[in-house]
Amino acid sequence: MTKKRYDLTQGPIFQKLVTLSLPIMATSFMQMAHNMANMFWLGRLGREYVAAAGLAGQFLWLAMAFMLMCRIGAEIGVSQNMGQGKPETAREYAQSGFILAIFIGALFTILVVAARSYLIRFFNMDDPQVVAVAKQYLSVVALSLPFTFAHFVITGVYGGYGNTKIPFYINSFALALNIVLAPVLIFILGFGIYGAAISMIVANAANLSLKLWAMKKYKDRPFEQYSIFIKVAWDKIIQILRWGVPVAVESFLFTTLFMVVSRLIASGFGVGAVAAHNVAMNIESLAFMAAGGFASAITAFMGQNFGAKKWGRMRSTYKVATLVMAVYGLVVTVALFSFATPLVSIFLDDPADIIIGRDYLRIIGLAQLLFCMEGVATGSFRGQGLTYKPTIVSVSSNVLRVIITYILAATVLGINGVWIGIALAMTFRSVWMLLWHFISARKLPKVDAV
After folding, report:
1. Would residue 1 count as lying in a domain?
2. What region, left, alpha or beta, does residue 192 occupy, with left being phi > 0 and alpha being psi -120 to 50 degrees?
């Protein structure tokens, strides 16, 4: 195994950062392509199916909170200990994170399937067909979650180690499998919306199987030995939770408060608005999935250098990464504003729905520049183990999001008031996060440890 290639504490910063982040961002684009393909196929069944998948999918987002808890905790443990030259301790974090992910993933699946009727009822959707389809879809697609939890942690372990290429290859294969399999199951075999859910289960199971093989057998694996059948290291589990719980709280409350806004859209503006919102959000993922992927790379980069106490390299990395994401954010802003109508028209036919989706993209697009830069600050905090800071900012801004959207939705702005409220809350969060990181970075030691 060529460990030196994945040492992020030395070598050209920009080159290392690009090598680390590009596979993660490419995976994000593949995920976006998968989501859009699913929307396209479901759109052929009718906008009710797009709306139903959008409502049910928010509980998969809710699961992401607990996935991130396991992944980020394991990734920090691996990256910091690899930076300190302690690979055995890093391996213990990798194995403990996997065990935790399997347990929580199975528990979450059971709860979602058992409570699916109550969960969908939360949105107060008055279309009985949408409600029925959403419950059916959620009951099947939730079965993919244990596989997703587990392979998500392995991706984080590889990231902490500094090798993001292997997860990229496997994720790409699994997403491609899903994209090909979904229309076959939906239309040719006649499973309808169940086909989209079944294809996700198959793809995530394949993803996990390949990653476990890579961890045990592939030449560029992070550790010589890796086993999922081990005695639980409770000290590692507890530390993973210490790092991961703030991230979980952040993601959980983000999704929960987002669902409150979705309830407003569903109950106040109807099926067309829900479908348009779902489509526009997936298009917007061009920005937030890439920014999130880049933030994951920064977490690993900062984690290794924090472990090695290379403070100057951390400062230089942050400057380079912020400049890269500023350029990317500017490109996304221009793209969303300029091509909003043709992008939404790919997935929706109703002119009124297209206008709603177009307005969302143009309004939210104005917040993308700062949002992309914010991801660098978030990744930097997490790499240092300061996961509570992004949580404080995110929770506060998302509470503000709910308040503003409900106020503006009741004015003559209507549905556009909801979009403006979301954009204002995003901007508030980005400015706060960037300022806090600027202040925090000034407190780092000036001289590297010897």
Report:
1. no
2. left
